[in-house]
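[Discussion] Sanity-checking designs against the backbone

I'm trying to build intuition for which residues belong where. Below is a structure token string of 210 positions. I'd appreciate it if someone posts a full sequence so I can compare it with mine line by line.
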């Protein structure tokens, strides 16, 4: 399974904002954006690029792709699927991204970062409706129950993540039982519940619609 294995702080610096790719570290002074808020590379501090319309659209796409840690082909396929659904394509695309199982595991606090949540899914620690699912891109549906597998409820990584994220509010479209490490999908996420970063999804739609 293809995935990005390079330095993730470099991606935040390239986009000039926190993408929260390192979990707890992103909320400390060790965050790369706090120390080096300029593009990576030898000439990063000297760069002052003037983006064209295409460049602005590309940056929004790259920002979304890196935030959700989805590779280009996956992202393009997801956009094609969203464009065939009823409603606004941009909203549909973000809904599909938010309903990915690795994102749900992160949102409910069973992992402190998306990469950690993805690993928990891949290693079989997560059940959906009582059945083990190890596909991070699995898309949950309303009334699905996402839970930590019975044999993993004492996993120290999961328990630490639950405690570390106890202060974070759960999205309105998810009902979370932290004590029992379960969550229920109440419905499709609304636009105001989507994405924790500033993102203009319409620019992504325009880019792919050319």
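Best answer:
Here's mine. Compare freely.
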């Amino acid at each position: 399974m293809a995935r990005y294995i390079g330095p993730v702080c470099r991606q935040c610096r390239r986009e000039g904002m926190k993408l929260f790719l390192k979990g707890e570290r992103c909320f400390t002074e060790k965050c790369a954006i706090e120390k080096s808020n300029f593009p990576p590379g030898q000439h990063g501090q000297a760069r002052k690029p003037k983006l064209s319309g295409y460049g602005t659209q590309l940056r929004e796409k790259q920002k979304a792709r890196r935030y959700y840690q989805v590779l280009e082909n996956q992202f393009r396929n997801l956009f094609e699927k969203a464009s065939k659904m009823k409603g606004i394509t941009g909203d549909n695309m973000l809904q599909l991204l938010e309903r990915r199982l690795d994102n749900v595991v992160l949102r409910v606090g069973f992992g402190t970062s998306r990469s950690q949540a993805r690993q928990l899914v891949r290693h079989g620690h997560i059940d959906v409706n009582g059945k083990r699912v190890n596909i991070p891109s699995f898309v949950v549906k309303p009334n699905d129950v996402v839970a930590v597998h019975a044999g993993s409820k004492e996993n120290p990584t999961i328990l630490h993540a639950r405690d570390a994220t106890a202060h974070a509010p759960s999205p309105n479209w998810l009902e979370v039982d932290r004590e029992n490490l379960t969550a229920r999908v109440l419905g499709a996420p609304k636009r105001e519940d989507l994405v924790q970063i500033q993102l203009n999804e319409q620019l992504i739609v325009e880019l792919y619609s050319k």
